[in-house]
Design brief:
Distance between the termini: 64 Å
Strand content: under 5%
Number of strands: 0
Structural class: mainly alpha
Number of helices: 4
Radius of gyration: 19 Å
Largest sheet: none
Length: about 110
């Protein structure tokens, strides 16, 4: 019968690293989805020639918040260079400027 003689700290470290990776994945997917919603909105309104500035501003703010959460999670794991995120996810400048701002809560019935 073989026994694993590694100290329990190794197992705890493994679990922590595994959760960090999982959280990074979730935050990355959230950012991707927020950016996709913004791009879809822009595409739909470019085709019709109409502009719904309030709805678009909300999407920019949501993407900025998702970007902020992802950057903070990355920095917590020791990944400090955010330029990679901006290039890889093709984050618009206006979203980068909203990073860290908390979107106002939606009003009931507002769209």
């Amino acid at each position: 019968m073989s026994r694993d003689l590694r100290p329990p700290v190794d197992f705890l470290h493994y679990e922590i690293v595994q959760e960090q990776a999982s959280a990074l994945g979730r935050m990355g997917r959230t950012l991707e989805q927020a950016l996709a919603r913004l791009r879809e909105f822009d595409t739909a309104h470019a085709a019709t020639g109409t502009a719904a500035s309030t709805a678009r501003r909300r999407l920019v703010m949501e993407a900025g918040h998702a970007l902020w959460m992802f950057v903070v999670q990355r920095e917590a794991t020791g990944l400090r260079d955010s330029r990679h995120i901006m290039r890889t996810y093709n984050v618009p400048g206006e979203v980068q400027l909203c990073m860290g701002l908390i979107p106002a809560p939606s009003k009931p019935g507002a769209k």
